[in-house]
Specification:
This protein is 31% helix and 27% strand. It is an alpha+beta fold and 118 residues long. Helix 1 runs antiparallel to helix 2. InterPro entries: McjB-like, McjB_C. This is Transglutaminase-like superfamily protein. It comes from Sporomusa malonica.
Length: 118
């Protein structure tokens, strides 16, 4: 289980403490990604954020989307949601059509019990 339960979504409601921690994680991931010696774009940021949220047992959904750029080339984007907040990849995501989603909607111990995960 790397990304979560395929084509499922986590709840839109999240506790205040969890939402606050998720916001800090998102801020940290996006901030640190600017300083890595390798490229840390949207997919890397979403996966790192997901792994950190999973460590705390916080529900989240990673989304994958595709769209076209100004030159009509196919482009992809990833974003991560916790509760009703997009914590990574929020900028420009409305230009993309969601083609995949992966949810962690239980605590870490429950996630390890299985399900249709990718």
């Amino acid at each position: 289980m790397v990304l979560g339960k395929h084509m499922q979504e986590s709840p839109i409601k999240e506790g205040v403490a969890e939402a606050a921690l998720a916001g800090l994680i998102g801020w940290g991931v996006e901030t640190v990604s600017r300083y890595t010696p390798w490229e840390s774009k949207c997919l890397v940021q979403a996966i790192v954020g997901k792994m950190m949220l999973r460590q705390y047992g916080i529900a989240n959904t990673l989304y994958l989307g595709v769209g076209r750029d100004a030159g009509n080339s196919l482009v992809a984007h990833a974003w991560l949601r916790c509760g009703d907040t997009i914590i990574t990849g929020r900028q420009g995501r409305e230009r993309f059509t969601m083609v995949g989603k992966f949810a962690d909607h239980m605590n870490t111990k429950e996630m390890q019990k299985g399900g249709d995960t990718i």
